[in-house]
Amino acid sequence: MLLSLAATPGPMPAAVATRLGEGRDPASLLRAHSPEPRAVAARLDELGVRLLAPGDEGWPLGATPPDPPGAWLFVDGPAPPGAAASVAVVGGRRASPLRRAAARSIGAGLARAGWCVVSGGAVGVDAAAHAGALDAGGRTVVVLGCGLDVPYPRANTGLFARVRAAGGTLVSEHPPATRPRAANFLPRNRLIAALSAAVVVVEAAEDSGSLSTARAAGSRGAGHVLVLPGAPWDPGASGCNQLIRDGATLVRSLTEILEELGATAGVGPSTGSLGGPGGGSGGVADDGSGGGPRTWSGLDPPARAVLTALIDGQLLTPGRLATATDLPPPTLDAALLDLELAGLIRRTAAGIQAIDLPSPRVSTSPSPTPAGASDPARPPPDPEPRGPPGAERPAEVLECGGSGGDDDRDD
Amino acid sequence: MTVSRAMTTVRFPARFALVAAANPCPCGHLGDSRFACRCSRYDLHRYASRLSGPLLDRVDLYVQVDRLTADELTGAADAEPTAQVRARVLAARALQRTRQGAENGRLASADVAGHCQVTPPARRTLMAAVDRLGLSARGFHRALRVARTVADLAGAERVEDHHVKEALTLRHLPIIGDREAQLV
Question: How many beta carbons lie within 10 A of that of residue A50, not counting itself?
Fold first, then answer.
């Protein structure tokens, strides 16, 4: 019955789920073109996809039902661990390189702390968060707005294969062969929120889908929406800043994210439910670009001035950079080359752009360092649980995009 | 110019400096502070693919120019007078002829390494550019020549690290029609 209903093309799953929630008989919701349950089962077998429904073992939405509720999930891979062990990382397709780098770093950090990363399947922030988590040896859940057999977006089909190979899961409410219609994505976002303990918003333009995911998580109460802020003139931050104004929690670093998760989600994921977090010291600082100074203090003053001018993620031509930094051309050229060799900027026809930021401090402590205190004697790490018991603590403080303002720290 | 192929070697008498200009994209506004670029990714890709990589690799100096301000347009802004630049260039060329009997641009490839001695930090920078910026073998030698010229213009005997960095920045082409550039 449910197989047939779930595989019926046409009606929005969220709408059907609402009716079922109101006590409607599933049989009354079938349509003339609803497929035979046996045919559906055969097709799902062929694809290696299962249908999960409330009450089934592994149903991940029991503790945190979305609104409208979820009546079923098509699942490719192990059942998603759900809100007890997962964190969503969301942002747009057109996020700036710095915000994508931040998403990657956060994905990696969450994975190392033992969290399963949940996101959509789009290019941009979604893909970066999954890739970061996978690089760190973690497991992720991709929530799609189309059928699980529909390769959309095509650019990410390789990533989806990686997700599955790493023991992760592809999830959708939509039956196989459903095309990715725009209308599918808003209801999809409520599932991303419901499958996670909290939503980390890395980027959100005005009226973006990330906002709807954040609002769905925010309806569960305080502490479920963690937001990277941005400058008022940064279009990729306008939704972020609005969320903060509306009461979401501002986070500036992976450390702060893990602290908030410790406070909100209590003990965090249990070790048994996840593949062990891999080693490695991934994150912003080691996407393979290697070499060069990767801390603010390791950069010389001209390079710091250039990076500070680029910190909002905008593009500046060499001419405009010269005006902004007031550096003579040979000094500017040398600074640009240093930053490029360090993998921190990129040149394009449209101008020069920061693609990564160095860590503002070299720290092996997972606790935040008060600005300006470069501190041999740190208090011992705070014992509050931030990840699964026994999980390895993050080895370094990984600052995300926007961690500027350190240019006063000359040495 | 000498072209050697399996069967023959042909010599073409040619001695020229190529000076070319290009727009960053078909509409001309990619990176413009005043007007938004209206090219699609496909437009950018097609535009960029018109210039072959090996041709671009032979260009030593790239200069990205911005829209001029009114002051710059009317010449009210400060700039070094051409006569002064000319004097510096002539002095550098004289220096090169004295040192090696030819200008840097006319040095035979085999002589470049000998006459363009660089300091150890400068060498490390060049190697890093090969590793991380994908500098080609041709690019390496051409950058070395430009670095020698930068040092000559500054009246420096040795090619220092900052000369090499300036040369590498000058020869590094802004990728015409880079798709990522439009994402912000």
Answer: 16
Where are the CATH 3.40.50.450 domain residues in chain A?
51-285
Whether residues B180 and A320 touch (CB distance < 8 A) is answered with no
CATH no. of A288-354? 1.10.10
Half-sphere exposure for A248 (CA within 13 Å, toward CB): 30
Domain membership flag for residue B8: no
| Each residue's pLDDT tens digit, B45-85 | 888 888 888 888 888 998 888 888 787 778 766 778 899 99
d(CA A144, CA B115): 61
Residue B14 included in any domain: no
Which chain A residues touch B174 with a CB distance below 8 Å? 347-349, 351
Render each residue's pLDDT in chain B as its tens digit; 184 residues: 778 888 888 888 888 889 998 888 899 888 787 888 888 878 888 888 888 888 888 889 988 888 887 877 787 667 788 999 999 999 999 999 999 999 998 888 788 888 888 999 999 999 999 988 888 888 898 999 999 999 999 999 999 999 999 999 888 766 566 545 443 3
CB interface of A with B, residues 303-362, below 8 Å: 313-315, 317-320, 329-331, 333-334, 336-338, 340-341, 343, 346-351, 353
Taking residues A265-275, what's their average pLDDT? 41
Suggest the residue from A317, A326, A355, A356 to mutate for an interface test with chain B (most B CBs closer than 10 A).
Answer: A317
Range list for CATH 1.10.10 in chain A: 288-354
Is-contact A118 A80, C-beta < 8 A?
Answer: yes
CATH class for domain A51-285?
A: alpha beta
Count how many domains chain B has: 1
Note whether residue B94 is domain-resident: yes
Of the candidates A314, A318, A337, the beta carbon closest to that of B168 is on A337
User: DSSP readout, A168-229?
Assistant: -EEEESSPTT----GGGHHHHHHHHHHTSS-EEES---TT-HHHHHHHHHHTT-TTSEEE--
Residue of A314, A320, A334 lying closest to B184 (CB–CB): A314
Model ipTM value: 0.83
Instruction: Classify residue B56: in a domain, yes or no.
Output: no
Give yes or no for a cis peptide into B13 (omega within 30° of 0): no
3 state SS of B159: strand
**Closest Cα in chain A to B68:** A319
Which structural domain range is residue B91 located in? Answer: 82-171
